[in-house]
Specification:
The chain is α/β, with parallel strands linked by helices. Helix content is 32%, strand content 22%. Helix 11 packs parallel to helix 13 and helix 15 packs parallel to helix 16. This is F-box domain-containing protein.
Amino acid sequence: MSLFIFHRSVIIRVQASTEQTIMKNASTVSIMSLPAELLVEIFRFHNDEVTLWRQTYSWLPITHVCRCWRQLALRHPILWSHIGLGRGRDPEHLYQRIVAMLSRSSNVDLDLDVFNPTQVSQRALRALLLAVPRARTLDFRNVYPFPESVQDMAPADAPRLTSVKIRGENTAHFFAHCRMPLLRKVEWFEWGVPLKLDHPFFRCPLTDLNLRGKFEGPPDFLSVLRGLPLLQSLRLRGSFPQDNEQANTESVLPHLRTLQMDVSMPTWRFLYEHIDTTASACIHFNVTDADPHVRQAPDKLVSTFPVIAAKLRGVAAQICAVSYSCTIYGCVKVAVYTSLPYWLSTAEIEGTWDPHLCVVLEPDFPGSEIILLDLLKLLPLWNANAFYLDVPANILNESPVKQRLASVVRDNLPNVTDVRVIGKIPALLMAELLASPVSPSNGGASFCGQPRTDGWVMPRLETLHISQVRLQIGGRPTWLKTLLSKALVARENAGVGLRCISFWRCPEILEEDLVDLRSLVDRVGWKVMCSRAKED
């Protein structure tokens, strides 16, 4: 017993000594001992949180903590380089703040933000605009219209400017005679007046261009693009003059990585056929049109599909997933991914929301469901290993749509291992497809140059995810006990069985259904995950 007490006393003394050492080090190693460079980076992290609506800078209270931090902030001009001007009730206070920050920023490059300044802040706005030649980035948002009283302050030279964001009427006119040799990124949204394509923005070596509004020449837009060979990202939304139809030359953009267009069908067709991009460029199209004459000729849209398919063949080996779905606005969408999509995300791996190819048709576009299935039929999808189906019952119940979709799944997705279906009708269709051997129109010999080795739809399928399906209606036997079970048993007997079935947000799963599925699992070694979540 005495030996135990001795050891116990030693342990207590060691613990007490350790605690004293920790407390001593904590008193000497504090935040005040951090290097100035590290503190500046911490302050800069908060410096990005500028709330222009309330005209607040979340980092400024940090400078009031102590005299040391205050002096540190005043000695580093970079901390004062992000300057914003928004709404404010006290015009004199706004002006004094702008002047003070410009003075403290010394001669470093500036990031300037202007958010809908009121008439009472004109003095502060003029003070900020005087610093445009020092600006690295400019962001003018919701300025309706840009005040005429400051147009006389338009700069002749902005030698440091690399990025411009403009959202508002007549704001771009402020830069109509400005030289911007380093400008690379332009985001220009304007609704009140047409976007002038002869603006100095388009004479800069741009890499990123995002335009929204009504476009007006001369010159025509293709001529503008031909002068921007370094473009890496091009985003367009608006209307174009129809005389562009007379163009007979292409705009070659060898460095383009993203092409996104939200335009009318004739504009989309014309621009895509006249913009030469590489296969690695991500392409997003949102096709709209209010012209009834155009709606009667969807074949003009379909005529571009072989061009899309031809370009996609350059990345066919990288295609890993494809989806056919409807958006919350009723638009029909086809998306092809070359990296893990968001709907396959796991706790370890985060998926992307940006597909390599995305085509969206408005809900009132005639035959949009069939048209996009025709596109899927042409695409090189033989390497895709995941398929996502989320289409409302009113669409999928239509016989032509159902037959065309079945044909796509049967003939174009031979290597899919993971299928995710949302809703009862898509799930029923998938069960029907899984239940019967394939009878391809090409005789089963090959698909896109790839030989067929078996006679089942998606013969490599391993995982089936079913979501948002009511499984029991009126006490009748569910399709789990009939069509799906029959399909799973038949595939297992043929040597093409599944390994995993999952149900998510599928209320009213019957215990007898689970017993039947588990008996199948016990027999063939499947893993079944079931969720009995209630309907929202």
